[in-house]
Amino acid sequence: MHPREGWPQDGTPRPGLSRRSFLRQSAGAGLLAGGLGPLLAACGSGGNTPGGATAILLPRPNHPVTWPTFKDNPAIKSGLAPEQGATLRIYNWVAYLNPQVMKNFEQKFNCKVELTTFNTMDEAMAKLRTGQLNFDIFFPTIDVLGQLVESKLIQPLNHSYIPNITQAWPDFRNPFYDGKWQYTVPYTIYTTGIAWRKDKVPENPYTMANPWAMPWQGKYSGKVAILDDAREGISLGLMKNGIFDLNTTDPTQVAAAGKALQDLARLTNVHIDNNDYTEIPSGQTWIHHAWSGDIAAAPAYLPKGVPVEVVGYWFPPDGKGPVGNDLITVLHGAPNPVLAHNFLNYLLDLPNVLTNISFNGYMQPLNEVTPQRLVKEKLLPPSLMSTAVLPSFFRRGVMELQLPVAADALWEQAWLQAKSA
What mean pLDDT do residues 402-408 have? Predict the structure, then answer.
């Protein structure tokens, strides 16, 4: 699940169960009730090799994908002027784009910017497939990129309009999930780690033999939480067991990870929610499986008189942990494609990026956006520099990517069993 899934429109704390989590649970419950055998037999293991009806193209760091282009969906021509007096329409997550950035863009390009938001990627994709939405720009996740390309819902980019790509980490000029960045530019990037209250928990994950096992402590019963997400939850169980293939299709590994979470539930009466950004600052939980951008924003939720230094966030210093990034695309048939390209370029320019980070807490992968720069700009307290994502994290980290259908069902089964423990 995406870190922004389930955020309500008014900015109040997210519910413990997002819409996508609910849909996944409903689907998973149906699979459990009906039995997984027929599905697994029908789907096989999936894979990257074409030749069968069940083959799925799955980009991986060791198997990069350059998506095809189509004659009836070409990139726009070079040298075109931005549309004048236009309304640029953006389709994005809730609370994920600074309104000031949009206002500044309006002034610079003599246009209006209209934002429509969604809470889950399932919701967004379903609406886009109707063909009835008239947007220019869409902010997807990596796992749906193949669907967007093959359905011709997004158009190839004309790179001549996006010179600011040179400000981004070099990795994004030829990312494994979109070779030659034909359809995407990067948006935010984040890690998944462990947040804790230093004044309540004397253990330091940086000195532990296996920090991923930090939540498994019975003495903190009632004060431990993990993220309400099948992929993140099972991944935590895998890493606790020393497995770092977070796209594994091995039933034994997935089942063992689920069993570890069941043990966690019995040991600590674990909370399962996505309120890491409020519960750690408030002290409601003392150890929380967490997203980096959420904890970067945690100082805003600290009770009066509580110093920010009591909030800690751990991610492996060697970068061997979950990392993810979002994308920005131009939709096929965009009414204002030149202006849309200009906006993508605008969101790759350092001053605009710093303004944007000040709003949503999630950093963007520009060369000049370093932990030290974020502290200097007072966008991040020195004690939470660990929430910043480094280029080495992206290169060494592990991404939770799209799974073959059968493997996804195994993950969902293990998660449902863990949540019912």
Answer: 93
